[in-house]
Amino acid sequence: MNSIKCPECGLVNFAEAEECKRCHLKFHPSEPAIETLSDADQPLFEAGVSDSTNPEPLVPDPQEAASPAPLPEYFDAEPETLNAPMVLFAVYLFLSTVVLVYQMKGYVDPRDKLYISNFEPLFYLLWLIHILGVFGSILLIILLLRRSHSFLRWVRVYLIGSFAYFGIQLTTGLTWRSTLLEKLQNNKDVEPLLDAMYWTSILSVIGFLVAFIWFRYFTTSNRVKNTFIN
Q1: What whole-number distance in Å separates Cα of residue 163 and Cα of residue 151?
Q2: What mean pLDDT is predicted for residues 179-186?
Q3: Are 4 and 14 in contact (CB under 8 A)?
Q4: Residues 223-228, mean pLDDT to the nearest whole number
Q5: Where are the domains of the chain?
Q6: N or C: which end of the chain has fewer CB within 10 A?
Q7: What is the pTM for the complete model shown?
Q8: What backbone torsions phi and psi does residue 57 show, to the nearest 5 degrees?
């Protein structure tokens, strides 16, 4: 509580008093002798106890709020090893490369028994498609063995391209075979070509189904996601 001590007689008066009650000394308004309570008279508070009516707000660390703690399973994550289906897919890519290279020769060699000069522009287009297939297969084998994360993206492109290739090969093969059967009946010279078109159509159906199985495996398997993380 504030008070005024008289400089003349030493009497302690209230802070609102304009003169001393003992000697009636007028207090100067601009220089009041204000006496504050000493440290000993101050109320004591227990150390470490805060005012419960006015708690101090907790300010979160902005770095902790911006970067949440990672889940335990991602600490020091190591890629899984290649399992049996992945090794089998590598063998499938290798065999596809061999078949594509073998077929490329028949598209540009006039001496081949399946070569038809009237379809030469189409054969050259198929030859270019086979080149892309060969390079795509080799690229996927490299990415597969390295367990690269980009394999998951390129294998989808490769398999979707396989869907289109087998679908076109199936429809065109059946169409050409039926057309040749109508125009060239009982012609022994075209029998090898007709047989090749028949088996090509069958293999196209099998290839389409196999590509669909691989597509489902590489897009839904959790083991695949944990393997190709580099």
Answers
A1: 18
A2: 70
A3: yes
A4: 89
A5: 1-37, 84-227
A6: N
A7: 0.59
A8: -65, 145
